[in-house]
Amino acid sequence: MGLLSASAIFFAFSHLYIKGNNIKFVVLIFMCIFVLSIFINMVSKKICFDNNFLISSSILGKKKIDLINLYEASVINLKGRIICVLSDKENFVFISSTIENFMEIIHKIIDIAPDDITNKLKEIDEKEINRKNTSFTLFLIIANIFLIGVAIYNII
């Protein structure tokens, strides 16, 4: 994801180098800022446990969920990843399968939280997560090759 940010910035400046349309350059800069902010948030996202609490922290803030009093746990299958949504009566947390040690985090949640709430989490297939992570990585590689290739084409 970091390489994608750098590739997008390189592509934006290659567009400026060829004296391309200024409106396109502004759109490219906003795209770069968007991709970079997602990358920074992904890198800074940390999940830890404190007794029966799950603490999710990132640059956007910190949220604490009481796993003993977990109100709802759901799983969202996207094309490139799986997202678990956990909520107690006060807060909610998103946990993406792209986070490091995702399955260890899920197993720990299952161990602490009530069984009737975590049934959906037990259905998560580790092989599917590995397949989705591989697909997501291939997408990032292709996106980087495309952006770098077009940027080099612009400069040449």
| Strand line-up in the sheet with most strands | 1-2-3
Number of helices: 5
pLDDT < 50 runs, ≥5 residues:
none
Order of helices and strands: HHEEEEEEHHH
Q: What is the oligomer described by this structure?
A: single chain
- Mean pLDDT figure: 82
Radius of gyration over all CA atoms, rounded: 19 Å
In the residues, how many domains can be counted? 2
Beta-strand fraction estimate: 15-25%
The outline comes out as elongated
Distance between the termini: 26 Å
Largest sheet entry? 3 strands, antiparallel
Helix content: 55-70%
Helices and strands: which structural class?
A: alpha+beta
- How many β strands by DSSP? 6
Explain how this protein is built.
The protein has two domains: 2-41 and 133-155, no CATH class; 47-124. Helices cover 56% and strands 22% of the residues. It has five helices and six strands; from the N terminus they run H-H-E-E-E-E-E-E-H-H-H. The protein has helices at residues 2-17, 22-44, 102-112, 115-122, 126-155; strands at 46-50, 53-58, 61-66, 72-77, 82-87, 92-96. The strands form two sheets. Strands 1-2-3 form a three-stranded antiparallel β-sheet. It has a three-stranded antiparallel β-sheet with strand order 4-5-6, with helices on one face. Strand 4 (72-77) and strand 5 form a beta hairpin. Helix 1 runs antiparallel to helix 2 (22-44) and helix 1 (2-17) packs parallel to helix 5 (126-155).
